Amino acid sequence: MSQPASGPSWLEGLGFAITDQPGGGGASGGGAAPAGPGFSLSSADAWSMLNQARSMYHDILRMGPHATALTKLTPPADEPGSNGYNKLLVGDGQNRGAFGSGADQVKLYRDYIAELVARLEKALGITEASDDQAGVDVKRVSSEGEGKGFA
């Protein structure tokens, strides 16, 4: 997985359809298979996948600081062998070294899984419910504060 983090989304153009959820499935309309390429899941499979993805996301979040700490190692002695080996591990300003590349990979995996979690939540209607509630709250605040400079 050498796709750059700033490049196109790894799930771009792929919808998620929850096949046994009538009218649900925010990522693709739900209820039927996606119109184009994508994934069709039962709600049980989607929830299982979401729980696994969330667990992996939290594991990778805990990994991040450890991976970054490895990039700050110093050689045990100031001699050519230790300095050369350390340069291969942590880099030298011109190259990231093995640990720098590893830390970059951990960040990339974190971003990939975060996107997968967001897409599954959207397909299951989890984020839409919070968006709908936010809309109701804004309307309530704006009607209460009419003419008073609120919302």
Q: Which consecutive residue ranges, at least 5 long each, have pLDDT under 50? A: 1-5, 24-31
Report helical residue fraction. 55-70%
Compute the CA-based radius of gyration.
23 Å
User: Which class of secondary structure composition applies to the elements?
Assistant: mainly alpha
Helix tally?
4
Main β-sheet, spatial strand arrangement: 1-2
Count of the domains: 1
Can you tell me the overall shape?
elongated
In whole angstroms, how far apart are the ends? 44 Å
Region (Disordered): 1-34, 130-151
Biased composition (Basic and acidic residues): 137-151
Biased composition (Gly residues): 22-33
Short description:
The protein is mainly α and 151 residues long.
What can you tell me about this protein's structure?
The chain is mostly helical and 151 residues long. Helix content is 56%, strand content 5%. It is built from four helices and two strands. It has helices at residues 43-70, 80-90, 97-123, 126-144; strands at 15-18, 38-41. Helix 1 packs antiparallel against helix 3. The longest helix has 28 residues, at 43-70. The protein starts with 14 loop residues before the first strand and ends in a 7-residue tail after the last helix. The model is unreliable at 1-5 and 24-31 (pLDDT under 50).
